[in-house]
Description:
Distance between the termini of chain B: 9 Å
Mean pLDDT of chain A: 84
Number of helices of chain A: 15
CATH architecture of the largest domain in chain A: 3-Layer(aba) Sandwich
Low-confidence stretches of chain A: none
Distance between the termini of chain A: 123 Å
Radius of gyration of chain A: 29 Å
CATH architecture of chain B: Up-down Bundle
Largest sheet of chain A: 5 strands, parallel
Number of domains of chain B: 1
Helix content of chain A: 40-55%
Structural class of chain B: mainly alpha
Largest sheet of chain B: 2 strands, antiparallel
Strand content of chain A: 5-15%
Number of domains of chain A: 3
Radius of gyration of chain B: 21 Å
Oligomer: heterodimer
CATH class of chain B: Mainly Alpha
Shape of chain A: elongated
CATH superfamily of the largest domain in chain A: NADH:ubiquinone oxidoreductase-like, 20kDa subunit
Structural class of chain A: alpha/beta
Order of helices and strands of chain A: HHHEHHEHEEEEHEHEHEHHHHHH
Helix content of chain B: 55-70%
Amino acid sequence: MSDKPLTVYEDMKSKGYSRRDFIKFCGMMAAFIGVASTGVSKVVKALESKSRMPVVWFHFQECTCCSESFIRSSHPMVADILLDNISLDYTQTLQAPAGYQAEKSLQDVMKNFKGQYLMLVEGSIPTGDDGVYCCIAGKSAIDIVKEAAKDAKAVIAWGNCASHGCVQGAKPNPTGAQPVHKVISGVPLINVPGCPPIAEVMAGVIVHLLAFDRIPQLDGLKRPKEFYSRRVHDTCYRRPNYDAGLFVQTFDDENAKRGYCLYKMGCRGPVTYNACAVIKWNNGVSYPIQSGHGCIGCSEANFWDNGPFYQHLASFPGFGIETTADKIGVVAGIATAAGIAAHAITTNIRKGKEIKEEIKESDHSQKEDNV
Amino acid sequence: MTQTNKRIYVWELPVRFTHWVNALCVVTLAVTGYMIGRPIAFQSGAEASFSYWFGTIRFVHFTAAFIFFFSFVFRIYWGFVGNQYAKWNTFLPLKKEQWVGMLRVLKIDVLLMKSRPLKTIGHNSLASLSYFIAFLAFLFQCITGFGMYSAMSDAFFPQLFRWIVPLMGSDFAVRQWHHIFMWVFVIFTIIHVYLVFYHDYVEGRGTISSMAGGWKFIEEESPDK
């Protein structure tokens, strides 16, 4: 091997991919990240000329579904190119070395590529009890994140865990799990939420960084706009049924068979930002709503706490399971009406005499006027 | 001594006008909003391309929201140029006498502890406070509503409210609170309408009609002829 690091293209060539495969991959990625057709050449050029980016990929409180999603991306090259060809120098799940060797390669990257390496985080970070709930190589997750983030070029938070806390961060959150952005500061950060995120979305974010050497445009929650600017609902193929007022009432009714809107079944599409309805899953085969089940909002903050999944309004905190705001509202309305009735009756008892006197007085003065 | 009634022009035309625009909008928004939250699925077996009723309900909701917002803005403006009963500072309990007034209203009109009615010309102190709280609820509904609307609109105005989604964490939370506050309006309306009837019944000074014509009556003690 030469001293000069290989470019992405050179590396792919050495793995047996043709030029045609490479261009196809570039075209697909350019389409995902939303550049115009003229921008494809920019992506091609970047991957041809830029050497691989050093990457460290951390796993903390998570289930590895993000990695699973990523390596199963529809285009085999996505996983190949990005797992093998960006130099993934450290990743607990997939790396060859173990023990001291593994930790050494992490230290090497942080030392040798100061300010150049990309830090990917999968999983939330426990902050309770000094972070003892997740330790790797004798260090707590919170210390590892802070140390690695200090000199990183950018940080990508994979999945709902790293972006919003996901199931560990759900009430009562015993480990004090926090998303990455709550723990670090001063480094460009991209949230790529979802449980897991779509593989092509993950690849698209990395390609954007490789091709343009800067982070994509982000929204208020630090999500790349190219994938998270539209609601699942607004891109859903069942949307016309919603506008027409055609709703599934139960999962086994006629309307479900006809493929009507799942809004009344608690579908979170209207409050969930993701590209599921556009890119879809498993090589564009389907996505939850297409398969007949509502969206559960897995790319949104606190989606576990916003349950039950099969009703639209969340349970109201402190009032027991399945008590929605509407039920409380109706009770409050009835209580108000009862209070008013009681008040009206009391008014007549307390002020009735006075009102009668006034009426008498009025009659009296009318008679006087007539005289 | 006899009592005579004097007419006082209390509610100016812009106050009355915005009042009824708001009333209409609140009812429309609450009804359509509730239906958006819990749609009636009366249709089935139909082809989606032939109807758009749910889309229409949402359209009515959004239109009413815009009208409501600008009516609200105009009312705030009128709080600075209107008469003493419409002034902004009647709604903020900043003076000691307003707090004293509230206590008296509480004793006389709410708890019915004393039988002599308290007669104020404009809003009484407690009513003013309740309107101020209602204004805050208006504001909250405007921010959360337009915040949710901003994702499906390229228009400049709704984008001004985009910040509420990151602040509250997610669209789900914004939507949930927007829905809960609808109930604040329902309960406010029930109490408000009842109290107007109450004052008209007990005091006989034309409280109900004052919001139509603008006039209220006050009693004046005058010496006998």
